[in-house]
Amino acid sequence: MFALCIAAWLFGHAIRFNIASYERLKKSGEKAPQSVRGLEVLASYALVLAYVISISYYLNLFGAFALSLTPLSDPTHARIVTTGVLSLVVVFGWMWGFVLLEKIEEGTVGLKLGIIAGLLAGLLMFFVEQIHASNMPAITMPELKWESIAVAFGLVITVQGFETSRYLGGEFDAPTRIRTMKLSQWISTAIYMGYILLVMLCFTDVACSPKTGP
Q1: Membrane-spanning regions, if any (predicted)?
Q2: Is this prediction's pTM over 0.85?
Q3: Distance between CA atoms of 211 and 206, rounded to whole angstroms?
Q4: Whole-number Å distance between alpha carbons of 212 and 200
């Protein structure tokens, strides 16, 4: 996970450099070379495809989890929930634009951070209890296999999302986008690393097996 966070930071650094360079070109009135502009158009289309896949993936997860504890927990109803949420996003964006979506996102991100904080607090309490009980197992490095590498590439989706700053130039200036992008990556890295370090204990036989005896 630490390696993924480093890779994400390097990607973010490249995007921040791109934001600053584009801002300088815009202020000077210069135009980027034709090859660069063509590559940017191609990258934009690739990003659209990536966003369609990413958003569909997350909304499918949301639909499945939203109904997981109800009698309607089946693929059909999960897809109905997914389609309904996606339709609302489209309607809100089409009728009221980015401002309303930004306000909705502020609320949902605040709720999500609250849930994450509660989860980390619970894991930390469990971790401290295990230390006091001298119940800390030895952690061994797993054998490196192709399946592990494939999973690592799949986990890249967990550290992405910051690249949207590149496309918010119509709403925010370059220094604001660069500063907030750095802040978001620092916060997300702290959350990911804290979660992984604390949750590792829960995937051991010592910590998760039921206690027997006094």
Answers
A1: 41-66, 78-97, 109-128, 149-169, 189-208
A2: no
A3: 9
A4: 22
- Specify whether the CB–CB gap between 130 and 136 falls below 8 A: yes
Handedness of CA 142, 65, 193, 130 (dihedral sign): negative
pLDDT digits (tens, 9 = 90+) for 80-119: 888 888 888 888 878 887 777 778 878 888 888 899 899 9
- Residue 166: how many CB atoms within 10 A of its CB? 19
CA-to-CA dists, residue 182 to 47, 85, 119, 165, angstroms = 21, 30, 24, 10
Question: Using an 8 Å Cβ cutoff, are 158 and 167 in contact?
Answer: no
For residue range 120-142, what is the model confidence (pLDDT) as tens digits? 999 888 888 877 877 666 666 66
Cα distance between residue 116 and residue 193, in whole Å: 13
184: closest CA among 126, 94, 105? 105
Which stretches within 133-201 are classed as H helix? 146-154, 174-199
Q: Residue 169 CB: number of other CB atoms within 10 A? A: 14
